[in-house]
Design goal:
Number of helices of chain A: 4
Number of helices of chain B: 11
Largest sheet of chain B: none
Distance between the termini of chain A: 48 Å
Shape of chain A: elongated
Structural class of chain B: mainly alpha
Order of helices and strands of chain B: HHHHHHHHHHH
Radius of gyration of chain A: 18 Å
Strand content of chain B: under 5%
Oligomer: heterodimer
Order of helices and strands of chain A: HHHH
Number of strands of chain A: 0
Largest sheet of chain A: none
Helix content of chain B: 55-70%
């Protein structure tokens, strides 16, 4: 029942898992929304590679197109809308801070 | 790795994490660990379903076991998934309100972008058609093909500008086309076979292809609707006025009435 996995495949899978975890951690800690969306794209693409590795090509296709592509595009569209039409409650720090998406006090380290 | 950027010297985050937050985090970690251990020690379930699917694959009308499960053995689930997608599109339309009148002065499209889009669009349509067709015997199908078509629609919205924030005038018909066809086929099989979505074996393949083609159109249109909803959102005229007088420096663009069409894809930094 136990399949033998070649060391190269095992290394690839391990690196993939580590990169997915690292990207998701960076994503949720990212103060800049635009960079976070870019990380989300990257996460979706790597996730679809992971689905291919799990022999689920159907899910990989759906993840690449819907998960990474279209959802990311929706995020970008919503971000551009946020910037064009700030909420009336917006404080001078910017539209993102009004909905608690950024911590404007944090110095921008990037 | 770069922990110095996270626990910055003057960041307000450390001050916000109090005892209740730490307790909640600890409880969440414990719960996760407990769940993981429980799942790890669960007995491996006997895999009977793959054998069942493989045994009855010849009766399903398709050669791809995933499509057979999605459209034949569990067609009811897929129909309900389509209905859920339809509901999201309806919600997006409801939030967006009535579409504003189409622009009489369409913005000039970027020549490079629109040329590239004209190159890409037929290619995307062909790929979507292929993915839809190949779903009969290899990975692919309606959801994948629909999302590829929707990507073409998103590109169209970004490069050329849709006539109205809610999409083309035939958009509502396209959105309900898939669920409607699915239900019609289900009712037809109910009438001829006596059970909802129980296809006759000889015609199962063509019925599945028909359903998938209709679902592809609907899925693509629903996803484009959601994208346009994100892009344009509710009209600012419908947003209730705030109690206090808004700062004129903040609501400069928002008070201009109808949001302008998204004509500048290079707006992002």
């Amino acid at each position: 029942m136990v399949e033998t996995v070649s060391p190269a495949a095992l290394t690839f899978d391990g690196l993939l898992c580590l990169m997915l975890l690292f990207i998701s951690w960076r994503l949720i800690r990212m103060p800049d929304i635009f960079t976070a969306i870019m990380l989300f794209f990257l996460f979706g693409l790597l996730m679809s590679v992971a689905w291919v590795r799990l022999n689920a090509v159907d899910v990989a296709l759906a993840e690449a197109t819907i998960g990474a592509g279209l959802t990311g595009a929706m995020f970008l569209a919503a971000l551009s809308r946020l910037r064009r039409f700030p909420s009336p409650r917006a404080d001078p720090a910017g539209p993102e801070s009004a909905i608690g998406l950024t911590r404007p006090e944090t110095p921008e380290p990037y | 790795m770069d922990a110095t950027t996270e626990t910055g010297p003057v960041g307000p985050a450390p001050a916000q994490i109090g005892v209740p937050q730490r307790l909640a985090a600890l409880l969440a970690c414990l719960l996760c660990a407990g769940l993981g251990v429980t799942v790890w020690f669960l007995p491996v379930p006997e895999a009977t379903l793959p054998h069942l699917v493989r045994a009855s694959l010849p009766e399903s009308g398709v050669q791809n076991p995933v499509t057979a499960v999605l459209l034949n053995f569990r067609g009811y689930d897929t129909l309900l998934e389509l209905v859920v997608l339809l509901l999201t599109a309806l919600a997006a339309r409801a939030v967006n309100g009535a579409p504003p009148p189409a622009r009489t002065d369409p913005p000039l499209a970027d020549p490079v972008l629109s040329a590239f889009f004209r190159l890409l669009a037929p290619l995307g349509v062909v790929i979507a058609g292929y993915v839809l067709w190949v779903g009969q015997h290899a990975p692919g199908g309606a959801f994948q093909a629909g999302s590829i078509l929707a990507a073409i629609g998103v590109l169209a919205a970004l490069t050329t500008g849709f006539p109205a924030p809610s999409g083309p005038p035939w958009q509502p018909a396209a959105v309900v086309f898939g669920p409607f066809t699915f239900c019609a086929v289900g009712l037809g099989t109910m009438w001829s076979q006596g059970s909802f979505l129980q296809y006759p074996v000889s015609r199962a393949g063509s019925l599945i292809l028909l359903i998938e083609a209709a679902a592809t159109v609907s899925i693509a249109m629903i996803l484009v609707t959601l994208f346009l909803g994100c892009l344009h959102g509710p009209r600012t005229a419908q947003v209730p006025a705030p109690a206090h007088a808004p700062d004129p420096g903040v609501t400069g663009a928002g008070s201009a009435g109808r949001p302008p069409l998204f004509t500048d894809p290079g707006e992002e930094p």
